[in-house]
Write a structure and sequence with these properties.
With about 250 residues, this protein is mostly helical. It has helices spanning about 1-15, 20-50, 65-85, 90-95, 100-105, 110-140, 150-175, 180-195, 200-205, 210, 215-220, 230-250. Helix content is about 75%, strand content about 0%.
């Protein structure tokens, strides 16, 4: 257990020193502040670009518009930045030889994989927490009295999908060398999930649903139970991926 904690601490310190932690926190803090502002100002901006004398009914923004911005930004730019920041999760250390030195000194390979995944997961969790809390505070301030439903579950679903992608990224890094290979496999995984989502019967179990149906939860147009199967499948997939990654990394020649 001490090996796991020591390596986890080492990873977090490295993320701070290489500005990975700072980059992600800044990106998500900006999202958290701007989500409600964009929702509030969009109708005014659209009205200002309309030709003079042209009248178009623009609905008043609500808290739902603010959370729509949150999920759109997190699903698109946020997750892309997350994957790019951690794309060299194994290859950088292997190329520098630092990881090999630690392994020859007795560090277990299981500790490397689990420590790396937990470190990435902590950074991702902190990023989502900060962004969602900032969005919540500014949404309450700009849209007082507006009610949303299932907010905690909707944010949790987005967080869980990000955790799933981190597990895919880490597993890909044990299979291929270099940053681009792991990025390619992670991107292909997302493409496969999107294709599977076309099949009506697969949507209920598809992890991609956790990142695409958030507004249905917040707007209460779908039951929370509709995503329970996808949550269970994604959780099991994460555990399976980490277990498989440990197995492959034990047998990988460094």
């Amino acid at each position: 257990m001490n090996d796991y904690l020591v390596f986890l601490k080492k990873e977090l310190i490295e993320y701070a020193r290489t500005y990975k932690l700072l980059i992600l926190l800044i990106v998500f803090i900006i999202f958290g502040i701007t989500n409600p502002l964009i929702a509030k100002l969009t109708p005014e901006l659209l009205a200002s670009f309309m030709p003079e004398g042209m009248l178009v009914a623009i609905p008043e923004p609500t808290a739902l518009d603010s959370w729509a911005q949150f999920f759109k930004n997190t699903q698109q730019m946020g997750i892309i930045v997350l994957v790019l920041v951690f794309s060299g999760v194994l290859s950088n250390e292997l190329s520098r030889g630092t990881l090999i030195n630690l392994l020859t000194k007795g560090l277990s390979r299981e500790a490397v994989i689990i420590g790396k995944f937990l470190a990435m997961l902590l950074v991702w969790s902190l990023s989502v927490l900060l962004s969602s809390l900032l969005t919540l505070v500014y949404t309450i301030y700009l849209f007082p009295g507006d009610q949303v439903q299932n907010l905690v579950l909707a944010v949790f679903c987005m967080w869980l999908f990000g955790a799933f992608l981190l597990a895919v990224l880490l597993g890909s890094a044990t299979l291929v060398s270099g940053n681009y290979g792991s990025l390619l496999l992670t991107g292909l995984t997302v493409v496969v999930l999107l294709i599977l989502n076309i099949i009506p019967g697969a949507r209920r179990f598809n992890p991609i649903s956790l990142a695409t149906r958030n507004m249905e939860l917040v707007s209460n147009t779908t039951e929370a139970s509709a995503l329970f199967a996808a949550i269970g499948v994604t959780g099991l997939a994460i555990l399976g991926l980490i277990t498989l990654t440990v197995y492959v990394f034990r047998r990988k020649r460094l």
